[in-house]
Design goal:
two-stranded parallel sheet; three-stranded antiparallel β-sheet; alpha+beta; globular
Length: 128
Amino acid sequence: ATRGCLPVILQDGALVEWEEQLPLKEYAIRVPMWMAHKTPDILQAFIQTGRAANMSAALDCVWRLHWWRRPEGRAFEMTMCELKRRLLAKQHGVEVKIKLDIQGCRVSCGDPLEWWQINGPDDQAVVV
């Protein structure tokens, strides 16, 4: 689905969608604007160290969380997950985090016993 491409973010001082909720550094490369001219060298370093291959494998799972169009996209479910996380945090008065299991390609919205498959059926998230 990602065809071997990795997102490269050339943007200072702004967060991209889900950057506070998901480990973006696991599947995207952020290059500060002042280093934009070194982007080819930076990308080459990621390729040579094998990090690009690991990031590509992670992206094979998580790209759906950034994609709105159905049947593959899960951005709506991710939005609902964030709302659930906020509700749980408010109800319990503690910080609640979204957890991402890249190996299992699943997400928990704050309830440690409830996970949903990112690549599950297109009509609903599957609780595991």
